[in-house]
Specification:
α1 packs parallel to α2 and α5 packs antiparallel against α6. The chain is α+β, with helices and mostly antiparallel strands and 206 residues long. The longest helix has 20 residues. It contains 6 helices and 6 strands; from the N terminus they run βββαβββααααα. It folds into 2 domains: 140 residues, no CATH class; 52 residues. The strands form 2 sheets. A 4-stranded mixed sheet has the order 1-4-5-6. 36% of the residues lie in helices and 14% in strands. A hairpin with a 2-residue loop joins β5 and β6. The chain is globular, with a radius of gyration of 19 Å.
């Protein structure tokens, strides 16, 4: 039985409550001496996931979504019609179920999406070592990564259809911003959520 697919998620849905990195830097991850690419980093993640299940057993990791600000086509390749440039926010959030329980690993420390994917793969490898050396089983090793509900998608926050045009998005944002802005008595958390949704909406329109 083949390994379940890792579905792409666009735009990035970084987990609630996880701090973001203010200043990112290049990573030192390499593949055969070359910088990591989307292909090599996704393969490295997939390889680590595969090693979490013993041969002949049911897959322990299911319902996988790799959330980034890069849009992929149905075939799994990068959608060149959207943008050939790397996104300004290179963060990555990997949502998955381990033995039926939802988890998330997120990283935005590095300045490219492939390096942040590779960092998640390296983290899984380190957690697997705890089970390999008899320190903890995988469920114990991943206990600190239980997933909180993912942030609502931008279209739900703005109250529009996900296929809404730019004018509709702008109108919905302006209407909500009047009451949500802290200067108008709105809560900072609500304003931040609305602002983030609007930025995601604009990125999706690009």
């Amino acid at each position: 039985m083949s390994m379940p697919d890792i579905e792409p998620g666009y735009p990035l849905r970084y987990p609630n409550g996880r701090p973001r990195t203010a200043t990112r830097k290049p990573a030192l991850f390499r593949n055969a001496g070359s910088h990591m690419t989307l292909t090599t980093s996704r393969k490295r993640l997939r390889d680590q996931i595969a090693l979490m299940t013993r041969t002949g057993k049911d897959w322990r990791v299911t319902n996988m979504v790799l959330s980034t600000n890069i849009r992929f086509t149905a075939s799994g390749s990068r959608d060149q019609n959207v943008s050939r440039r790397d996104p300004e926010d290179p963060g990555v959030a990997f949502y998955f179920d381990l033995d039926g329980r939802s988890h998330v690993l997120a990283c935005d420390r590095w300045d490219t999406v492939p390096d942040n994917i590779t960092a998640i793969a390296a983290h899984i490898e380190a957690l697997r070592g705890q089970e390999r050396w008899g320190v903890a089983d995988l469920r114990q090793a991943f206990a600190g990564h239980i997933a909180l509900p993912a942030p609502d998608p931008w279209w739900a926050v703005l109250g529009v259809d996900r296929r809404a045009d730019a004018a509709t998005i702008d109108s919905a944002y302006r209407a909500l911003a009047k009451a949500a802005h802290p200067n108008a008595g709105g809560e900072r958390a609500v304003w931040d959520r609305l602002s983030a949704a609007y930025q995601q909406a604009k990125a999706a329109q690009a």
